[in-house]
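Please complete every field before forwarding. Incomplete forms are returned to the sender.

SECTION A: IDENTIFIERS
Entry label: holo-383
Bound molecule: pyridoxal-5'-phosphate
Molecule representation: SMILES string

SECTION B: INPUTS
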Amino acid sequence: MAAFDFIKDKLAAQKAGTLYRQRNCIEAIDGSQIKVDGKWYLNFSGNDYLGLSQTSALKQAMQEGVDRFGACSTGSSLLTGYHYAHQALENTLCQWLNKPHCILFASGFGANHGVLQALGQKDSYLWLDKLSHASLIDGALDSQAQVKRFLHNNGEQLQKFLSKNPSADQLVVSEGVFSMDGDSANLSELAVICQQHQAWLYLDDAHSIGVIGEQGQGSSSQIKPDIVMATFGKAIATSGAFVACDKGVFDYLTNFSRHYIYSTAISPALAWATKASIEMIQREQWRRDKIVELSALFKKQLSDEVTILPTESSIHALIIGDEEKTMAIAEQLKNRGIWLSAIRPPTVPKGTSRLRVTVCAHHSANDINILAKNINEVLINAR
Ligand SMILES: Cc1ncc(COP(=O)(O)O)c(C=O)c1O
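SECTION C: PREDICTED COMPLEX
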């Protein structure tokens, strides 16, 4: 009898290709340090860009949310899962992003998947940047639309694709800041192209919400995308996600997005804490300034022999290339007390394995100096 032999085979191939993945349990957190297997490390792998996750204000808001609304939403938003805390959070998001409507999802993956699957109808086209997140790709492929990826940040190719189907419904999909390279989309160009071709623009702002914009509204503040999505799980430092849009799309998703309809709404306590986090993000500009300051320090302290991708975000990628070498370098840094996860295919294209550094507002200048010194020593020795 067949016994799912592919499981064994696939795992063996994963190990042979230095692609095997496993979890590490974070036993404790203290500021920028994490404890794993009894040892403390300086952490440069988290997405808590603004350093809000461990603040007493956010912890208190979560506590207040539990006290006022309870721990669980008790159902899908269309049954008994939509509470006052969710409504208050949606209102805050609408005001912050200057959008008329907003809808909450249990995760960013679910939001992207749920929206693209619902919008991608037969005879429509979804055009995704080549470096789009897995959730965008899966949502698009699981829809009925024609799906194609354009070369990363290549407006010229996108124009050509769009011009072939002038009368079809067309949705252009991009991230504001790309998750694994940290570079930004050319948003003004994308906006003009979409307008010329009467296509809609869908912006996944997961890595710029909180970090970019005068009040941290993200890169969507530079233009007016038709639909903006972002997760709460990075700079906002809770979890879940939102999609901001017009009334038509809001009503459509409420009626047709399977992820929305058939999934338990996020906990109202979490929604309450998320609202408090967004209020802090609006007020506390110093957190964004600190990321800019520390990122500049990091670049300055790196040896000329170490190259990183140019970015204006919290994300700085050191491309190593080979999976095995990347893992070995990450291990050496770990031995020196630096936690920097290796990012390998299929998360990034083959031959571009990398160390992805995230510079966050809870880091100190000393943390950054230690990081740069150790990267310089380990990378130059590895040559
Ligand atoms: C660009 C992008 N979109 C969506 C997601 C998914 O968000 P979540 O972690 O809330 O599922 C992520 C997170 O990894 C991401 O990097």
